[in-house]
């Protein structure tokens, strides 16, 4: 499981936690998030996210 | 064919270019910028210091890389001195260039406080990557930072610097931080969160004069007290850059005035981002830029598209007290209903019909952002 950071606003997506409030279950891999999803903080589309892996969680 | 020309390489200019290239691979695209043309994360300028990020680390691509990625010609370090909207030309360092369509993505200037004293010019503001590089350089080897202004950027810097080990004093003529955006209870949570981290507030006072004193500065406040600091940072707001448009006869108000198509009063000239006033709204945040860029990209290829703004809550990145706010529209009479728990504050604003018109959340209550946002009406439907 990894954490990913939005390059534009710094939002962090943690695969372990998911985003249950957005309908993304805990444990959802970044690859499995739909392409039309956008960063909840800044609206950057997933395709433009260039999210960077910032850490491998245990 | 004359190019689509974008003036500005901030988030607005580059996001538009990226959206445009998704729908048009070939039309010549020119991006002119007074900066060096590096692409970087603007929101991180006010929260990257404590994590030790240099300007170089915040820059993700050089102007060259952006040019290749966007199949465009980028002119860095160039100033546009004039626009002729009838001839479809701009003047670039004395040279005249033709455009097919022109997009103003000029950004905003930090407002400068009127200060007396022999060091008034030494007050820093951080609004782009070069400012950030300078700020980091100036901070090296210092301990005390004074921040003028308690808006979003002022609070984010206060949090970032105090986390980075600095002694931070914040000056504001008001009574609480972020009072323009937040209801009182959430402002108080922000004040208390940052106080716990060690931030010292000076409310009810303005900075009057800055004078050199030893290696640092003496800041004279309006109650005649004096504060000493090694570095003084001003964060009292932004003013859209409108003078280039105004000189060209384009209508400006607070920002460069546009309609729902992002079109200015001149044919084939558009504006977006911090310089623009779209249907009366000046919104210097990231989310509106994303929506504006997607709509404008389509308009530029002939598919005229209105910009839609959903409710766009603003996230304030202060780990000492995370806050998210969607202010109610100015014309709605609003009474905040405040719920305090040990872990946060939730403030809701309902209109007279009982519908949610805005909210502000602090601490753990920020987890309710998505659920509440879905209940809000669109800003521009």
Search tags:
heterodimer; A: 58 residues; mainly beta; 3-stranded antiparallel β-sheet; 1 helix; 21% strand; globular; B: 381 residues; alpha/beta; FAD/NAD(P)-binding domain; Enolase-like, domain 1; 3 domains; 5-stranded parallel β-sheet; 5-stranded antiparallel β-sheet; 26 strands; 23% helix
Task: Give the biggest sheet of chain A.
Answer: 3 strands, antiparallel
Give the strand line-up of the largest sheet of chain B: 5-2-1-9-20
Provide a count of the helices of chain B. Answer: 9
Mean pLDDT of chain B: 96
Largest sheet of chain B, described in full? 5 strands, parallel
Which structural class should the secondary elements of chain B be placed in?
Answer: alpha/beta
Helical segment count of chain A = 1
Q: Categorize the overall geometry of chain B.
A: globular
Strand-residue fraction of chain A? 15-25%
Low-confidence stretches of chain A: none
* Oligomeric state: heterodimer
Considering the protein shown, what is the CATH homologous superfamily of the largest domain in chain B?
A: FAD/NAD(P)-binding domain
CATH class of the largest domain in chain B: Alpha Beta
Class computed from helices, strands and strand pairing of chain A: mainly beta
* Helix content class of chain B: 10-25%
Q: Could you please say which CATH topology of the largest domain in chain B applies here? A: FAD/NAD(P)-binding domain
Distance, first to last CA of chain B: 35 Å
Question: How many structurally independent domains of chain B?
Answer: 3
């Amino acid at each position: 499981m990894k954490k990913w950071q939005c390059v534009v606003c710094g939002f962090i997506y943690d695969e372990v936690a998911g985003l249950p409030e957005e309908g993304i279950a805990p444990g959802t891999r970044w690859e499995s998030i739909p392409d039309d999803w956008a960063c909840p903080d800044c609206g950057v589309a997933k395709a433009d996210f260039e999210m960077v892996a910032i850490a491998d969680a245990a | 064919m004359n190019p689509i020309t974008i003036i500005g390489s901030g988030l607005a200019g580059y996001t538009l270019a990226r959206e445009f290239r998704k729908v048009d691979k070939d039309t010549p695209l020119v991006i002119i910028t007074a900066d060096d043309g590096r692409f970087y994360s603007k929101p991180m300028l006010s929260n990257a210091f404590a994590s030790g990020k240099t300007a170089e680390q915040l820059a993700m691509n050089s102007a060259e890389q952006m040019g290749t990625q966007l199949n465009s010609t980028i002119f860095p370090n160039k100033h546009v001195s004039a626009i002729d909207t009838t001839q479809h030309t701009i003047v670039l360092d004395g040279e005249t260039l033709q455009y097919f369509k022109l997009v103003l993505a000029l950004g905003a200037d930090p407002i400068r406080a009127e200060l007396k004293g022999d060091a008034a010019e030494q007050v820093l503001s951080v609004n782009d990557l070069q400012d950030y590089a300078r700020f980091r350089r100036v901070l090296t080897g210092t301990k005390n930072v004074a921040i003028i202004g308690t808006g979003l950027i002022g609070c984010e810097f206060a949090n970032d610097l105090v986390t980075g080990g600095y002694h931070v004093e914040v000056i504001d003529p008001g009574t609480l931080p972020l009072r323009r955006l937040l209801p009182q209870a959430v402002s108080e949570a922000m004040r208390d969160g940052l106080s716990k981290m060690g931030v010292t507030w000076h409310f009810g006072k303005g900075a009057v004069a800055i004078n050199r004193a030893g290696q640092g500065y003496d800041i004279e406040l309006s109650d005649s007290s004096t504060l000493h600091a090694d570095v003084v940072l001003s964060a009292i707001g932004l003013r859209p850059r409108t003078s280039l448009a105004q000189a060209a006869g384009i209508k400006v108000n607070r920002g460069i005035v546009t309609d729902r198509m992002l079109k200015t009063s001149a044919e084939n000239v558009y504006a977006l981002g911090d310089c623009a006033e779209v249907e009366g709204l000046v919104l210097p945040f990231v989310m509106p830029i994303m929506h504006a860029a997607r709509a404008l990209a389509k308009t530029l290829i002939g598919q005229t598209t209105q910009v839609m703004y959903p409710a766009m809550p603003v996230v304030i990145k202060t780990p000492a007290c995370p806050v998210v706010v969607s202010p109610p529209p100015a014309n709605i009479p609003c009474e905040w209903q405040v719920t305090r728990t040990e872990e946060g504050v939730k403030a809701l604003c309902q209109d007279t019909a009982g519908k949610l018109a805005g909210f502000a959340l602090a601490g753990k209550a920020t987890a309710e952002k998505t659920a509440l946002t879905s209940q809000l009406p669109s800003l521009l439907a």
